[in-house]
Design a protein that fits this description.
The complex is a heterodimer of chains A (about 200) and B (about 300).
Chain A (H helix, E strand, L loop, with lengths): L3 H13 L13 E2 L5 H23 L1 H7 L1 H14 L14 H6 L10 H16 L8 E5 L3 H9 L3 H6 L7 E8 L2 E7 L16
Antiparallel strand pairs in A: 2-3, 3-4
Chain B lengths: L13 E4 L5 H6 L6 E4 L8 H13 L2 E4 L13 H14 L3 E5 L2 E4 L2 E7 L5 H18 L4 E3 L6 E2 L6 H12 L2 E5 H10 L4 H11 L5 E7 L2 E5 L2 E5 L8 H14 L4 E4 L7 H31 L1
Parallel strand pairs in B: 1-2, 1-13, 2-3, 3-4, 4-7, 7-9, 9-10, 10-13
Antiparallel strand pairs in B: 5-6, 11-12
The chains are: A mainly alpha (about 200), B alpha/beta (about 300).
């Protein structure tokens, strides 16, 4: 039996091993008994993967519902392989997900998906901000991410199908109204995303 | 390490595991449970949720049940995470603070699960050092929960109750006895749940057991072989209620939490589960009173 540090290194490697990839042998460490070892390990592997996918889905709800759970989970695990969480507060993990999606080949046909993710992140930041930091946020994009988010989260397939996906300059204003998040379109404008604004809630 | 007077003690009554979607319901109906328990990690990156939790803590005792301290990690405790927990503890003044007999950090990577430890003298020393560090930082006693188990290491010579009893003796920590985990682990390792609970009750000093957890589990059968999954996604099962009653008979009333984390039901459903636990606590309390009266009469 190896020292605890080595045992944990090997078990972690087994949990990180990609499905279908080379297996990491831990059968000398574990008494499988009547249940196959792969199934016993699978409980932990599924738990880890499920928690990572759920954490990203909570932060990027529009992306998840837009692409469906299976595709979302596949992308989430590919992202996790590049940016594994280092801290237990998973709500703080995943800030690089939108940039990852922008270069994620299986999602290449969904050219607006990265901006949908960025808009989800902006609204999640706004929702979780403390009272003194809930200033309105501005978001500039080429895609109608507000219409997409609204249609997707309201499960309005007709509205989703009717959205004009022609790229054009769109500026959005997002703010908190009590516990609710609100957004509105601004006149087309130049400027960076999330500009500091002295405006109050419109 | 005793409460410092600013903490609001958790009573020997039924509490509810509080999740973000139920904040408003808990604030509207704080009498739904005698106390609430939360995972502190859910509030470390969500200031808005923390503001709501502060409002809950103002009207009901609170317990912080951590999932990320990783007391079983050979590489030691994540000091940054511990500092965040200490800050929350100072802010919320919970009656109880707990984590698990498990590990979830390796080479700085966080695995969102409770991974099992081999119960060896080496592991006992490592967990004791980590628990010492956590308790020193918090300035109070930590409860350590027995895990649900899906695998057994080839070299794990110390029975789990003895491991926890030794840990409590070395560090002064308490034990959070998860009765559902006792059942799940026993079934998954082909042991008798009743005997497993009896071993816990015979091995651990009653004073060490500071809290009990109850939860539902799933039974997954494949190729005729069943495995129980501690998914906290259903009502407490009859077999677990029966074990709980045996635990209360031995221990007397203990703060008892209903955990339900997946497939989250309505707050009313959680209230009903807590009420079912409270009925058993009340019955045990009444039995204790009768026994005391009989003893005085004798």
């Amino acid at each position: 039996m190896p020292a605890l540090h080595e045992l944990q290194r090997r078990l972690a490697a087994a949990l990180l091993a990609a499905p279908g990839g080379p297996a990491v042998a831990v059968d000398d460490l574990i008494d499988a008994g009547r249940v196959p070892l792969a199934r016993r390990l699978g409980v932990h592997r599924n738990s880890v993967r499920g928690a990572l996918c759920r954490a990203l889905a909570l932060r990027y709800p529009t992306v998840e519902r837009l692409v469906g759970e299976a595709f979302f989970d596949q992308a989430a695990l590919a992202y996790a392989a590049q940016d594994w969480p280092r801290e237990p507060q998973l709500a703080a993990w995943g800030r690089g997900y939108a940039d990852f999606i922008a270069s994620y080949a299986p999602a290449a046909s969904l050219v607006y998906l990265a901006d949908v993710a960025r808009f989800d992140l902006l609204l999640d930041d706004l929702a979780s901000a403390q009272a003194g930091e809930r200033r309105p946020r501005r978001f500039v994009t080429a895609w109608p991410v507000d219409e997409i988010r609204s249609a997707v989260l309201e499960e309005d397939d007709a509205a989703l199908a009717a959205i004009d996906l022609t790229p054009r300059p769109i500026a959005l204003h997002a703010w908190r109204d009590g516990a609710r998040l609100r957004t509105r379109r601004l006149p087309p404008a130049t400027g960076d995303n999330d500009e500091r604004s002295d405006e109050g809630a419109p | 390490m005793k409460p410092d007077g600013r903490q609001r003690p958790v009573p020997a009554a039924a509490g509810i595991g509080l999740r973000l979607p139920h904040h408003a319901a808990a604030l509207a109906d704080p009498g739904a449970a005698a106390w609430f328990e939360v995972h502190p990690e859910n509030y470390m990156a969500d200031a808005a949720a923390l503001e709501e939790l502060e409002a809950v803590a103002a009207v009901r005792p609170l317990s912080l049940h951590a999932v990320g301290l990783s007391p079983g990690s050979a590489e030691g405790v994540n000091r940054a995470h511990l500092a965040r927990l200490v800050a929350l503890e100072r802010q919320l003044r919970p009656g109880l603070v707990s984590d698990h007999l498990a590990w979830c950090v390796q080479d700085g990577r966080y695995f969102p699960d409770l991974l099992p430890l081999p119960y060896t003298t080496e592991a006992l020393g490592i967990v004791a050092d980590n628990v010492d560090a956590i308790q020193q930082a918090l300035g109070r006693r930590l409860l350590i929960e027995n895990p649900s188990t899906y695998l057994r290491y080839a070299d794990s010579p110390i029975p789990e109750p003895e491991f926890l009893a030794a840990l409590a003796a070395r560090t002064g920590c308490g034990v959070l006895l998860d009765v559902n985990n006792v059942y799940v682990s026993a079934m998954n390792l082909d042991a008798d749940p009743g005997a497993a609970l009896a071993a816990y009750l015979a091995t651990l000093p009653a004073a060490a057991i500071g809290e009990i957890h109850l939860a539902g589990h799933a039974r997954v059968e494949r190729d005729g072989v069943a495995l129980l999954i501690d998914d906290h996604g259903s009502p407490v099962g009859a077999a677990v209620w029966a074990l709980y009653e045996r635990a209360l008979a031995a221990l007397g009333p203990v703060p008892t939490l209903i955990e339900w984390d997946t497939a989250l039901p309505s707050f009313e459903t959680l209230k009903a589960e807590a009420a079912a636990a409270q009925r058993r606590l009340d019955a045990r309390e009444a039995q204790g009173a009768r026994e005391a009266a009989d003893a005085r009469a004798a």
